[in-house]
Amino acid sequence: MNYKSFADISTDINNNLFKLNDGGYDLIVGIPRSGMIPAYMIGLYLNVHVTSLDALINNDKLTSGVSRDTRVPLVFAMDAQKILLVDDSIVTGKAMQLALERVPDAIKENITTCAIYSDKKNKPDIDIYLEYVKRPRVFEWNVFHRRLMKTSCLDIDGVLCVDPTEDENDDGEKYIDFLLNAKPLHIPSTKVKALVTSRLEKYRPQTEQWLRAHNVQYDELVMLDLPSQKERQRLGVHASHKADYYIKSGLDFFVESAPTQALAIMTASGKPVFCTGDNKMYAPGLSQVLTKSPKSLLTQWEHSIAIRLPDSLKKAIKPVYSALVMRS
Length: 328
Prior knowledge:
5-stranded parallel β-sheet, 13 helices, alpha/beta, elongated
């Protein structure tokens, strides 16, 4: 699973400005909605006006900030002589084609089409693309709003809602109040196949009530069937509980909030895990192993083994792992 974040798209645009600087563009036009972010980034780098597709078609008056003038002063959108029409990515080319069909014939010859990411190296239906990113791929700005959710597992705390504070996490009345009133974070736009959480089974009614209140659609809610928070902490089965379901489910994607658990789930399952806590994709593969330091590899191996061991054995092997890591 290839992943691009907001930070990545900024870096990728910056590294590919050589493909754009000689174009002499005096207006950057973004295709709403995903195309607007890279359009504004490019416009700021090149110091030219930026507008939306609708504003171009309507020949709206252009504006800019008060801190600096644009390199080429324009009053109206159709005053532009060289226009860069931008979208975040291209696969079928349908979105770009539909956008071009809406542009008045009088200015079509002024337009160069651009996508930041292409799924193919040879793309005849686009004038410029900046980076090749093969499928399957997912972007930070749409990860919770696409069909991928239908074959995904999502954690709840730190993903759908904020994590409880230490004070709220009392396994009692304060925790119940948290469960019913937790502030939402990422609410998916489509149905999720499975919500897989380390919340205890006894809190299913409160969890389901919150999910209904925030219109979270899902097929299955998988909780941890243990009597208390203290027992859950003693066993340390947060990651293994999630990894076991991920493996057995045959699903393609897991979203987790804690980096340590994301690494452990990925290592145990051999499948990709997106972590909202550090905004990274944890993905298995030989290239990942070869680029890791010995210390990182020991950490990964420790997770893959230790999350499945009894607590007594975990305590016994901890000094051995610590000594190995110190020597690496």
